Structure formats: structure tokens, C-alpha cells
């Protein structure tokens, strides 16, 4: 695992402090929709580094992806992604290194079968 400067992890640590239920086991969630609302409100204080992307879970119920950048003043190190479903399954998280992020963007850009992207 790379050794990131401490400042690159400030926001993900603040996220973990604000939502420890996402990172402790056993997990217990009473209302994932309320958790989504809390996370969306929390993200507003970091408009440059935290982004909410809406999606659906396997039950076609509203879910979110929370994208949290890890960067210093000089360098981008990657992005943590936290998936919070509304109904199906439980939250999950993963990390995208810069190359992984580029590969995901390239794959998503290829997923336009009708030429709708302009």
C-alpha cells in the first residue's frame, strides 16, 4: 500500500468519523434512505472533494455513490467510492487509483450504445 501524505486522507477520515456505522462490524442500518440524506448533507461542506452520484440498487430503488478524492495541494492519489443502497444489500466501499479511475471513465464512456453522448 502506498504511503500517502496525511493531508490526502483528511476528508475520508472525517467521513469515517461522521458515519462510523459504515466502517464498523457487525453493521446495522435501520434506514438507509435516512443515511443517504445525512451523507448528502455532509458532502455539501466539501464541494471540491466529495461528489454524490445517484444510481439505483438491484430493486431499482434510489441509491448513491459517494466519491471522495484523496489529494494533496500538489498531487492526486485516488478516489474512495462508497456505495449506499436504499433497499438491496448493504453499503460497500472501494478505492480507485488514478489508473483505475481512468479505466472506469473509459469504460463508462464506451457504454453509450445509441450514440446519445455528445
Topology of this protein?
Layout lengths: L9 H9 L13 H12 L6 E7 L5 E10 L4 E9 L7 E5 L1 H13 L8
Summarize it.
The chain has 118 residues and is an alpha+beta fold. The protein has helices at residues 10-18, 32-43, 98-110; strands at 50-56, 62-71, 76-84, 92-96.
Q: pLDDT under 50 segments (min length 5)?
A: none
The number of domains is 1
**Helix content range of the residues, please?**
25-40%
**What is the strand content?**
25-35%
Structural class by helix and strand composition? alpha+beta
Number of strands: 4
Counted by DSSP, the helix tally is 3
Overall, the morphology is: globular
If strands are numbered along the chain, what order do they take across the biggest sheet?
A: 1-2-3-4
> Average pLDDT, to the nearest integer?
86
Described by strand count, sense and barrel closure, the largest sheet is:
4 strands, antiparallel
**N-end to C-end Cα span:** 38 Å
**N-to-C SSE string, H for helix and E for strand:** HHEEEEH
Primary descriptors:
alpha+beta; 29% helix; 4-stranded antiparallel beta sheet; 3 helices; globular
Your description of this structure?
By secondary structure, the chain is of the alpha+beta class. It has one domain. Helices cover 29% and strands 26% of the residues. It has helices spanning 10-18, 32-43, 98-110, and strands at 50-56, 62-71, 76-84, 92-96. A 4-stranded antiparallel beta sheet has the order 1-2-3-4. Strand 2 and strand 3 form a beta hairpin.
Amino acid at each position: 500500500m502506498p504511503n500517502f501524505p496525511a493531508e490526502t486522507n483528511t476528508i475520508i477520515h472525517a467521513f469515517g468519523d461522521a458515519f462510523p456505522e459504515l466502517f464498523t462490524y457487525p453493521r446495522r442500518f435501520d434506514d438507509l434512505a435516512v443515511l443517504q440524506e445525512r451523507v448528502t448533507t455532509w458532502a455539501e461542506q466539501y464541494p471540491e472533494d466529495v461528489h454524490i452520484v445517484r444510481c439505483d440498487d438491484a430493486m431499482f430503488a434510489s441509491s448513491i455513490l459517494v466519491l471522495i478524492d484523496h489529494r494533496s495541494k500538489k498531487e492526486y492519489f485516488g478516489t474512495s467510492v462508497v456505495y449506499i443502497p436504499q433497499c438491496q444489500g448493504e453499503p460497500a466501499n472501494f478505492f480507485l487509483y488514478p489508473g483505475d479511475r481512468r479505466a472506469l471513465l473509459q469504460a463508462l464512456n464506451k457504454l453509450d450504445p445509441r450514440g446519445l453522448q455528445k
